[in-house]
Amino acid sequence: MSAPPLVDTSVVVRYLTGDVPELAERAARLLDGPEPVALHSIVLVEAAFVLEKVYEVPRAEVVDALVELLQKKNLHLLDLPKEEAVLALLLARPSGRVSYADALLWATAKSHGAERLYTFDERFPADGLEVVQP
C-alpha cells in the first residue's frame, strides 16, 4: 500500500485564508474530502509564517486554525503524531516566545523518546526534556 499524497503549504494557506477563491475551493474539496492526504510538520511551520507575516493573522488565530486543521480525519502527519503536533502548536501559541519550529522539534524529540536536546537557544521549551548547551 502506498503512502497518501502529500499536501504543500500553498494548499493549506489557500484553504485557511480563502484567498484566490477558485484555488481555495479546490483546496477545500481536497482537505474536506474523503481522500487520505498527508502533511509534513514543515508545512505547518511555513503556513504559520505565511499567515502571520503575509496575511497578518494574529498568532493565536494561526495556532487555532492549524490545530483545527489537524483534527481532520483524512489528514495524516508524516513525521510525528498529530497529538504531539497539537501540543507543540499550543506551546507556541501564547506569546511567540517559542517559535513554531522549536515547538515542533520539541514534539519530535518527545514522540521519539529523546530525553535530551542540545541547543544554544535559551528560550527552547524544556517541558519534559533536558535542554542543554553542547
UniProtKB/TrEMBL annotation:
HAMAP family: VapC_Nob1. Its cofactor is Mg(2+). It is an enzyme of class 3 (hydrolase). Its EC number is 3.1.-.-. The gene is vapC. One of its GO terms (molecular function) is toxin activity. Residues 6-125 form the PIN domain. It comes from Oceanithermus profundus (strain DSM 14977 / NBRC 100410 / VKM B-2274 / 506). Toxic component of a toxin-antitoxin (TA) system. An RNase. Mg(2+) binds at residues 8, 102. InterPro entries: PIN-like_dom_sf (IPR029060), PIN_dom (IPR002716), PINc/VapC_TA (IPR052106), VapC_family (IPR022907). Pfam families: PIN (PF01850). This is Ribonuclease VapC. Belongs to the PINc/VapC protein family.
